[in-house]
Amino acid sequence: MTTPRHTINHYTHPDNLTNLVHDLDTINLNDTHHAACTKGLCNNANNDNWYPKQGIHGPSAICRACPVQHQCLLTALTLNDRWGIWGGLTADHRRQLNHWIKQHRKINP
Questions:
Q1: Does 19 fall in a domain?
Q2: Is the pTM of this model over 0.85?
Q3: Could you give the number of structural domains in the chain?
Q4: Rounded CA gap, 88 and 96, in Å?
């Protein structure tokens, strides 16, 4: 798995979406979740940063610098986590990304 440090615009590009769907289809959730939880730069950060009040959007600068940003996003997408910032994306962005993933899978079964 690669470790892109990008926003939703990166993931919705067709090539990147194909790679993301492949990663989701081949994920080992235990390993990926463990890496995201133990190696993430957010481990020592204030929890309020990851669960912002409604209306606040935008990935954290910490996420963009994190070596396991991609694994973190894969974990959130696999677990369908509906809260907080995971992998640099807000819950709204992950919902949008899930829509793109579903469309991609319909076109590329």
A1: yes
A2: no
A3: 1
A4: 14
Task: Please check whether residue 2 lies inside any domain of the structure.
Answer: no
Quick one: which of 33, 15, 18 has its CA closest to 70? Answer: 33
Alpha-carbon gap, residue 29 to 78, rounded angstroms: 8
Q: Is 3 inside a domain boundary?
A: no
Nearest to 20 by CA among 35, 4, 36, 31: 4
Q: What is the 3-state secondary structure (H, E, C) of 75-109?
A: HHHHHCCCCCCECCECHHHHHHHHHHHHHHHHHCC
Q: Which domain holds residue 73?
A: 8-107
At 34-77, the pLDDT tens digits run: 777 788 888 777 666 666 665 455 456 788 888 888 888 999 99
- What the block records as the tokens of 49 is 């940063």
Instruction: For residues 41 and 78, give the distance between their C-alpha atoms in angstroms, rounded to a whole number.
Output: 21
